[in-house]
Amino acid sequence: MLDNVKSQPGEDPIIVEGIFPASPADVFAAWTDPDIVKQWFGPVPGSLHAAEIDLRVGGAWRFVKSQDSNGAFGFEGVYLAIEPPTGLSFTWRQFKTLPDGTHETSADSQVDLTFDAKDTGTFLRVVHSNIESEAMRKGFAGGWGKGFENLSHLAWQSR
Amino acid sequence: METLDTTFAALSDATRRAILARLMQGEASLSDLAAPFDMTQTAVSKHVRVLTNAGLVDVEKRGRTRHCRLNAVRMKEATDWLMDYQTFWTQQLGNLAQHFEGKNRHA
Fold first, then answer.
1. Top mean-pLDDT range of A61-65, A136-140, B1-5, B83-87
2. In angstroms, rounded to a whole number, what is the distance separating the alpha carbons of residues B107 and B88?
3. Does any domain span residue B105?
């Protein structure tokens, strides 16, 4: 079923594709209905803290990955184009809200989704472009490898 | 107060990442940290200060020795921000596939 990664690590745009056993309308809804988003989006399915969606061009979206005494972390942006059930475009950035209310964000990038009916399912293409920061695009995984994974693991464990 | 810019700047240097990787294994004195690098303890000390300013490392002075320790909470905050989007989207589409496959099974 999955997955067809079209781009090389560190390339911009990043293109990831997959075929899903549902209609384009259902796959479109999986990205635009906050209750459905919460069921699958995140580090593991069902782990997302909150999803807020104002589904209109210029409307804001925010997926909160975690929220605790250290603040809130996640992704947010604004819808650029809404064409159910074939297309959805939005700006994308990472955000962090500190306990004192300070809101920090990464630079804006853009995500374009296209949903095409294929046989009895849907072919989905995710194009993530204008990822300016090398840190955001590649992480440090490229240069750091296993050490980074371990570090990340350790950081999670000690929560 | 530490900002993400400070954190990213701290992580952008290979020597500092190597220091963090060493501290992953546990606490180390400044001289222990300096040992694997072809640089003076003063130079390593400067790197450690950058990591301390970013909140990634805590330094405690005991007697004449300074002991360095990883701040795991701060490290997690940083790793929350650092990701490979290729891996990220592949993982998300995997989640989505799982979601629909689960639904079809229950239907």
1. A61-65
2. 29
3. no
Residue for token pair 């060493």: B22
Is A22 in Cβ contact with B90 (below 8 Å)?
no
| pLDDT value of position A159 | 33
* Percent of chain A at pLDDT exceeding 90: 47
Query: Model confidence over B21-69: pLDDT tens digits?
Result: 888 888 999 988 888 888 888 999 999 999 999 899 999 999 999 999 9
CB atoms within 10 A of CB A119: 8
Domain that holds residue B23: 4-82
Helix (H) or strand (E) holding A150: helix A146-157
What is the CB neighbour count within 10 angstroms for residue B29? Answer: 13
Provide, as residue numbers in chain B, all residues whose Cβ is less than 8 Å from the Cβ of A14. Answer: 85-86, 89
Query: Contacts of residue A156 in chain B, CB cutoff 8 Å?
Result: 76
Instruction: Give the domain CATH number at B17.
Output: 1.10.10.10
Residues of B in contact with A45 (CB under 8 A): 95, 98-99
For residue A33, pLDDT over 90 is answered with: yes
The helix/strand count (H/E) of chain A reads as: 5, 9
- How much is the CA Rg of chain B, to the nearest whole Å? 19
